[in-house]
Design goal:
Catalytic activity: [(1->4)-alpha-D-glucosyl](n) + phosphate = [(1->4)-alpha-D-glucosyl](n-1) + alpha-D-glucose 1-phosphate
Family: Belongs to the glycogen phosphorylase family.
CATH topology of the largest domain: Rossmann fold
Largest sheet: 10 strands, mixed
Number of strands: 25
Distance between the termini: 33 Å
Number of helices: 33
Cofactor: pyridoxal 5'-phosphate
Bound molecules: ligand T68
GO molecular function, one term: pyridoxal phosphate binding
CATH class of the largest domain: Alpha Beta
Mean pLDDT: 95
Radius of gyration: 28 Å
Strand content: 5-15%
Low-confidence stretches: none
GO cellular component, one term: cytoplasm
CATH superfamily of the largest domain: Glycogen Phosphorylase B
Amino acid sequence: RATGPQFPPTHHLADQPAVAPARDVDTFVQEFLEELNFGQGVPLDRSTINHQYLALASTVRSYLMADWLATAARRRAHPAKMVGYLSAEYLLGRQLGNALLNSDLEGIVEEAMRQLGIDLAAVRAQEVEPGLGNGGLGRLAACFVDSLATMDVSCIGYGIRYEYGIFRQTFVEGRQVEVPDTWLALGAPWEFRNPERAVQVDFGGSVESYAGDQGRPRRRWRPDWNVLAVPYNYMVPGYHNGVANTLRLWSAEATRAFDLQIFNHGDYAEAVRAQTFAENISKVLYPEDSTPQGKELRLQQQYFFVAASIGDYLHGTLPEDFDLARLPEQIIFQLNDTHPVIGIPELMRLLLDVHGMEWDQAWAITSRCFAYTCHTLLPEALEVWPVSLVERLLPRHMEIIFEINDRFLAAVRAQFPGDDDRVRRMSIIAEGGDRGVRMAHLATVAAVRVNGVAELHSQLLRDKVLVDFAQLWPEKFTNVTNGVTPRRFLVSANPPLTSLINDAIGGGWITDLERLRELEPYAEDPVFRERFRSAKRANKDHLNSTLLAAGTAQLPADHMLDVMVKRLHEYKRQMLKLLHIVSTYEGVLSGRVPAEQVTPRTCLFGAKAAPGYATAKETIYLINRVASVINSDPKLDGRLFVAFPPNYNVTLAQRLIPAADLSEQISLAGKEASGTGNMKLALNGALTIGTDDGANVEIRKLVGDDNFFLFGMREPEVAELQSRGYHPGEVYASNPVLKSAIDLIASGHFGDRGASQALMGDLVGNDRFMALADFQAYVDAQAQVDAKFADTEAWTRSAILNVARSGYFSSDRSMRDYLDRIWGAQVH
Ligand code: T68
C-alpha cells in the first residue's frame, strides 16, 4: 500500500500550514452559517435543532482541524516514542462541550448563537453520546486519551466503531428493557472516514509449510475469508494547548474481492449476504461487563481491531524503510485488559511470516512492544478462549501461541525443576476437557509491564491472581492508580464549583490538579462554605431540570443526595444499599424509628444490568418496586425518596455527580479493582461511605478518616471468612433489623411476591458477595453519615477537603505514572 501522496504537490501554497478560521464572533457566525447553508443545505429560518447541531459541530471541528494537522506535522518532524492505546471500548461521552472547552471557544460560541437566536442548550442536548463502552474500563480509556493530548504526549487510540453502542436502558413496569443505541442515526459530525487507509483483516483457513530462503522450513497462513477494516478518525483535543491527537476507530466492511467473486458466480443475494456478514463484526458492543461470554463474534471483533491497528501502524504510519528491529524504540502498545491480547501473536506472525524474521528476533521485539493492564480480580472475568475456536478462526495464531507457551514453560521448568503443578498453573493453555487459551497469561508472558489499577488491586494481583508470575518476574509488576479527567468531570460538569475554585486559587489547577490543595484553608472560611453550598444547590437545580426534561421524578429540595451510580453487579452490592433503605422504611412502619428522626434523603441509583444477567435485572426490578412504594407512602413524611433515572451514561453522570452529597462505594473488599466514579464524586465534593476496596483505600488515605465513612470487612477478613465458611442464614437469623427488612421484601410488600422471595432466598441462602455480613457495619456507618449531615458546617468543611485533597486522582497523574513506570521502560 502506498503511504505517501503519489504526486508531489506543485502549488506554491501546498506546504503552508492549515489555518483555522479567525477566533472572533463575526467569523464564527459566518462559518456556522456556511456549514448550515452549504453543509446541511438549509437556511437558518428553516433549520431544525439537528441541523443546527450538525452545523455547529462541523464548525467547531474545522477550528480543531488546524491543530490536528499541525500536531501530526510536528510529530512527523520530531518523531518520539509513541503510545498505541489498544482498547475495545471508549466511553467518550458527548463531544461538543468537550471540544468547546478544550479549544477555548465557549465564549465565542455562546455569543454567536445568541446573535443568531439559537438556543445553545437545546443544540447541545441534541447530541447523542458515543457510548462505545460498558463502564469504567471504557471511560478510563477516554480519560487517558484526553490527558495524553493535554500533556502533548504522542498517542494514537485504537478501537472499534460499533454501529450500536451500549444499549439504551428503559424501564417498563420497573423492569429493564434494552433499546438499541442508534447513535449514528442523526449524523456523526465528529468523525471522518479514511477509506484509503483501510486494512484487510483475514480469518479462517489453514497453515502450510514451505521452503523459505536457503530452503529453511517456514510456515504461512492461508486464510479463507477476510473483511476490510475502514478507519474513522476522531480528534482528541488537548486542553488549551493547540494539540489534537487521534482516536482511530475501525469499522468492518466487505472486501471488494470477496463480494465480486461471489457476484461473478451470478449469486447477487449471496454477495449481499457476504457484505452483511462482514459488517456484523463491528455492528454491536457486547454489553457484558466483567463476565465475558466467549462468543465467536467477540473474538472476531478483538482480532479485527487489533490486526487493523497493528497493520495500520507498521505498514501505514512507520516509514517504509523502517528497521523493525528498532520497533520497541518507536511504539508501546498498551493493552487495555485482555481484549486486545491477540495482538501479541499477531505481531509475532507479521515479524515471522511477513518480514521473514527468526523466532528469537521476533520475540525480542514483540516482548518489548506490549504492556498489559488488568482491570479485574473476579476469576470469571478473565478471558479464556477455547483452543478449538482460536484454531478455527486464527490457525496460525494458535500455532504461535503454542510455541510461545512451549518456550515459556521450558523456562519455568528450568527455574523450578520438578514443579509440575506450577507449570500447570502458569501454562497459557488451560488443559482438561475444554482446552482454553488464558489471555491474561499470554499477556503477562509477553508484556514489559503488568499493572493493576489501584494499589490494593495491584497487590492482590501479585499475591493472588498472578502470584506465580510475580515470583518469576517481580520487576514486571507495577501499579498505576486510575484517574479521571478534571476537564470533563469538574470544569465542564460543574461550572459553579469551577468558578468558585477559580475565584479562590486561579485556574492553574485544571492541568495541575494537585494545586487544589490550595483550597484547604478555605474549608475554615464560613463565607466560602456558604458559597460552596450554594454551588451544590445550583447543581441540584440543574439536575432537577434535566430529570424533568427526561420525564423522571423530581428530587425534593433540602434532601441529602445519596448516590450510587455504576454498573449493576452483585459484587458492587446495590442490594446492600437497598437493604439499608428498606430497613429505614421498615423502622418507621413498625414504629421502631419515629419518622421525624429520619434524615431527609434521596437515594439515587444509576445502573445498567447486562441483558443476560438475571440476578442483576431482578435487582433493578426490585429497586424500582421499592421506590414506587416508599415514594408514595405518607408515613415517611416525605423524608425518604428513592430515584432511579433510567439509562445512566456519561451525559447523566456529568449532571449527577456535581449534585451529590454522599457517594456510595460499598463493594465487597477485594472485588472492585479500582472504581473511578468514587474519584469523580470526591472531586466534586461528595463524602464517601465505602469499604476498604479498590481506590477507596487511597481516597480515604488522602482525604483523611474524618472526611470519609469507612465500614465493613477488609480484604483479609473476607478471605478468612470465606475459608472458614460463610453462612448468611445465620447472620439473617441473628440480626432482627436485617431480618425484618428481608422479611418485608419477601412478604411481597413491594409487589411481585414470587420475584421478591426468589431474590431474598438467594440472598439468605448464598449471598455470594457477603452483603449480609457487612449489613450492620453499613447501618452504623450510615448513622454516622446522618449525624454529620445534621451539622451543616462540619459536613461542608469535609466536602471542601474532599475536593482539595483529590488532586491525585487526575488522569494526568495516571499518565505521568504510565510514562515513568511503563512506557519509558526498556527491560529484558
Ligand atoms: C472496571 N472494569 C473495574 N470492565 O471494574 C473498575 N469487562 O474497578 C475499574 O475502575 C475500571 O475497570 C477501570 O480500571 C470494567 O469496566 C468492563 O467494562 C468490561 C468490559 C468487557 C468485558 C469485561
